[in-house]
Structures are given as structure tokens and as C-alpha cells.
Description:
Layout: H1 14-21, E1 24-27, E2 30-33, E3 44-47, E4 50-53, H2 54-63, E5 72-75, E6 86-89, H3 91-102, H4 118-129, H5 135-142, H6 146-153
Antiparallel strand pairs: 1-2, 3-4, 5-6
Helix pairs in contact: 5-6
Amino acid sequence: MPKTNWSKYDKMNARELKRFNKFIKEEGEHRLWTGACIKAGYGVFKFRKHMVLTHTLALVHKEGKPDDLKMECAHSCRFKNCISCISWKTHSQNQGEDRLRDGTDQYGEKNSQSKLTNEKVLSIRAEYSTDNFTQKELGLKYGASQQEISNIVNRKTWTHI
């Protein structure tokens, strides 16, 4: 998403809110935008002569602009046209949560550079906890460095399992 041009966003007056709400469809806990959308799937709305993103406009209307203007409007659901499951997040928080929620994160065995699998990492931890193997021995057994084994058993890496 491009950086937000905050000069285009403000709270809506009653007439603007009424026009905005004509394009909203309630679906369970979601309020979905049914009007125009950009190619990426986010809703857009003509607001005071400017095309604005509907989820950002809805959040500005509800909570006001964020104190830190580097924040962005983030969805906590998979619907890019949803205007109810939104909050202010930093870019890295927004991206990280989206990847975890959508299963597109690159942690562990999902990373194409990974030599290990979740199963092997669990085995490494189990075997190390028996005190029958050194980190170096486990590294040789699993094709990893002693430092990588150390990071695994001390939960500095592979923290998601």
C-alpha cells in the first residue's frame, strides 16, 4: 500500500456518512464495502473531491487520525473490503500479522532456505534434552552448524514451534 496522504482524510459529516453507508453490507461480524474497489481489492470512495480508501476513512471516522502518522489501517480479517475489522498498526505489524493469518509467513520449513523441518527441530530439542548428545553431534547428525543447534535448543530460532 502507498503511504497515506493524511490531508485527504477526516471525520465524515452526517450527509457524507449516510452516502458512505449506502455501500455497506452487513455479513456477520463484518461490514463489507460493496462500492468501487481498486485492483488490489480495497474499497475506494469519493470523499471531498478525492478518492480515498474506505477502510482508512472508516477508521479515521471512528477513532480519528493516528497520533503517529506512520501508522496504517490494518485488517484483522481476510476481507480487504471490510471496514469493521480494522485498527492502527505499524507497517511491520500489519505485514507480519497478515502473513501469519494468511499462512504466507516464511518461518521454519516454509522458508525455501531451510535445511530443517518442524519434525527435525522437535527431534533436536528432544534429543538434546536427554543430555546424550552435544550440540556439535546433533549438528553433524542433522546437517546443521553447532550455532544453529544452539539457537534451536535455546529457542532463539524456530520459536513458532
